[in-house]
């Protein structure tokens, strides 16, 4: 019996406790590479552009330099045959995903993402986010917890671009956090 893709990914989950699950980095990389293999089979630039957009922050957390190279490859589709782009893209995608994310790279991505919403927040809400970043940097809270603080804001402000990011799909703890609660209490 062959397992479905979601079943294969779920086999690589690390159970932390009854109400929290964390995806392993190995499963994260496999998920992204499996998605790219579908893009490669489709042989359509539109699929590659969408894949690049959906994985921007996932790639950024792994390797920002390779993210730039991948973006340039996608942008070169009018100059280079798509088959060559797909081959080079796959090569650089694998290079990018080999580099393990660090607290520093996660912080960078979180700051980029928070930038989408920061103009909607009061100074005290921004200070709360800064405190959460300090706790994350100090190892007191997880990546998943940080993303659980940001994730609900994506829907609150109807940011479909961020909602489609694999970064949230694969790293976020699905329980809403305190920023969302504070923001909701203002309404």
Describe it.
α1 (5-11) runs antiparallel to α2 (25-42) and α4 (56-62) packs across α5. The protein contains twelve helices and two strands, in the order αββααααααααααα. A two-stranded antiparallel sheet has the order 1-2. It is 70% helix and 5% strand. With 187 residues, the chain is mainly alpha-helical. The chain starts with a helix and ends with a helix.
Defining key terms:
two-stranded antiparallel ribbon, mainly alpha, single chain, disordered N terminus, 187 residues, elongated
Question: How would you summarize what this structure contains?
Answer:
The protein is mainly α. It contains twelve helices and two strands. The chain has helices at 5-11, 25-42, 45-54, 56-62, 64-75, 82-98, 103-114, 123-137, 143-156, 160-163, 166-171, 178-185; strands at residues 13-17, 20-23.
Low-confidence stretches: 1-20
Please tell me the overall pLDDT.
83
What is the β-strand count? Answer: 2
Distance between the termini: 51 Å
The proportion of residues in beta strands is under 5%
Number of helices: 12
> Any idea what the shape is?
elongated
Spatial ordering of strands, largest sheet: 1-2
């Amino acid at each position: 019996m062959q397992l479905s893709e979601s079943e294969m990914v779920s086999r690589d989950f690390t159970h932390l406790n009854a109400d929290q699950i964390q995806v392993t980095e190995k499963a994260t990389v496999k998920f992204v590479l499996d998605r790219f293999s579908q893009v490669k089979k489709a042989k359509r630039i539109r699929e590659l552009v969408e894949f690049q957009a959906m994985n921007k922050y996932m790639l950024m957390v792994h390797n920002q330099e390779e993210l730039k190279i991948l973006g340039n490859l996608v942008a070169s589709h009018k100059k280079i045959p798509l088959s060559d782009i797909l081959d080079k893209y796959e090569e650089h995608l694998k290079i990018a995903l080999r580099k393990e994310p660090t607290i520093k790279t996660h912080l960078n991505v979180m700051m980029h993402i928070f930038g989408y919403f920061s103009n909607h927040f009061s100074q005290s809400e921004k200070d709360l986010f800064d405190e959460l970043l300090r706790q994350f940097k100090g190892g007191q809270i997880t990546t998943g917890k940080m993303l659980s603080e940001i994730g609900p804001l994506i829907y609150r402000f109807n940011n479909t671009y961020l909602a489609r990011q694999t970064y949230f799909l694969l790293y976020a703890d699905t329980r809403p956090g305190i920023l969302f609660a504070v923001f909701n209490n203002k309404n």
